[in-house]
Amino acid sequence: MPSVSPIIIDSLRRRVDRVARLMTIGMGRAIPLGDTVPDGGGSAFGSEVLAACRDGLRTLLALWAEERSPSATELRQLARMGGRLATTGMPLDAILRAYRVAAVVIWQHVVETVRVHPEVAPQSVLTAVGPLFDYLDAISVAVSTSYLETRERIRREQDRHHDRVFAAILAGGSGPELMAQALAAGIALDFPYRVLAIEAGDTDVEATIATAWRTQRVHLVREQGAVVALVPAATKPETLIRLLGSSGPELSARPGAASWRVAIGGVAASLDAVAPAAGAARDALTVGGILRPGERVHRAAELHLYRVWLRDLPGLQEFVDATVGPLLERQRTRRLPLRETLAALLAHEGPSAAARSLGIHRHTLLYRMERIQALVGTWDEPDQHLRLTLGLQGATLLEALAKPDGGAPIASSPQAVGALRTSVRHDGRS
To answer: Which of 86, 109, 264, 370, by CA, is between 20 and 30 Å from 31?
Structure first.
């Protein structure tokens, strides 16, 4: 570091408090440090800034006198104010601008010292100003690092607080205390909300969804394998779904699979209604993905019957056994496509249409029909037709839930799913 005139150093040393106060006033004009800062840093926060300016100036004088650069320890100490300012929410560029203002105050004092001391060569200004702004650059880097680290720590703490509050809400919590915790976490809840559940292909898609929906004042939280969304009741879910379709190629339809699916649940008029509505939406996401795999959007109200099944899987197993159990067992032992044939017969008007959908001769279909009727009865009456249709759908649901990678229903009882999988392993039943 070039030598700085001892006269400049001594002049500043005698006036440390005055120059530090001027630096604080200048910084207070650059960024909002509090109403009492301009008159001398009388507020608690203004006093912190004044102390930081005094420390920074004394360190600069030591560097000039010793003709050296600041050490890492000195920079960490000087950068602490950057972290402190980060907690106020001030933008980083405003903080760095304030530090430049403080450096200009020092430079102005150097110029004035040279002016009133003719024995100091004018070029001494340049000798001092170079190291001064090198010092400012070093401090700026340290302050920026401290600021960004502090902001990241604050963000993580806020995210944890946010997640804790929403975990309590989705667990059924309510009351004024929880509302106060939500406000403390920056969560402004304005009921009523419609509750949705979203399943995305990957975290990048989830991030895109979050970006698109938060502009609509939607609260989002990841919970039990899905993203739960609290949507203002005045906002139509279809509007949000259209946003997904225009959010980029990562959300476009892919052959054979959807990169995202949405289940539209009910409206929660109060805090204690959020958990049941979220549970219904998650259940709709589960059964909709199994029974209606080609659809992106599922409505909890339309899937109410199947959502009830998730709450009583052993009972559903009994129903499937009683309705289509013999047919499923025969198909396993004889390898006859009886299940697919029954599904086609139930879905089409008349045997001819069913045969065409299966790509088989009508006589082949009639042969299979005889065996199906011997196993499960007829489906001529509406109640018989409905019973067999539900039996096949229930079997599909049970089989999907029993697969190791098929996933348990997002909000159903883990004990019921475990019992189902045990039954499947031991009995060989679907």
So the answer is: 109
Helix (H) or strand (E) holding 260: strand 260-268
- Measured distance CA(332)–CA(340) in Å, rounded: 13
Condensed to tens digits (0 to 9), the pLDDT of residues 273-299 reads 999 999 999 999 999 999 999 899 999
CA dist 236 → 187, 213, 216, 304 (Å): 21, 12, 10, 21
322 domain-assigned: yes
Q: Is residue 170 part of a domain?
A: no
The answer to whether 342 touches 388, Cβ cutoff 8 Å, is yes
Residues 218 and 242 in one domain: yes
DSSP conformation letters of 187-240 = ----S-EEEEEEEESSHHHHHHHHHHHHTTT-EEEEETTEEEEEEETTS-HHHH
Q: pLDDT for 183-224, tens place per residue?
A: 888 888 999 999 999 988 777 778 888 888 888 889 998 877
The tens digit of pLDDT for each residue in 134-188 reads 999 999 999 999 999 999 998 899 888 988 999 999 999 989 999 998 888 888 8
Q: Describe the chain by its helix, strand, coil percentages, rounded to 5.
A: 65, 10, 25
Same domain, 360 and 413: yes
Q: Is the domain of 212 the same as that of 242?
A: yes
Q: What is the mean pLDDT of the chain?
A: 85
| 368 and 419 share one domain | yes
Do 243 and 272 belong to one domain?
A: yes
Is residue 179 situated within a structural domain? no
* pTM attached to this predicted model: 0.67
Residue that has been written with the tokens 């008349």 in this structure: 350
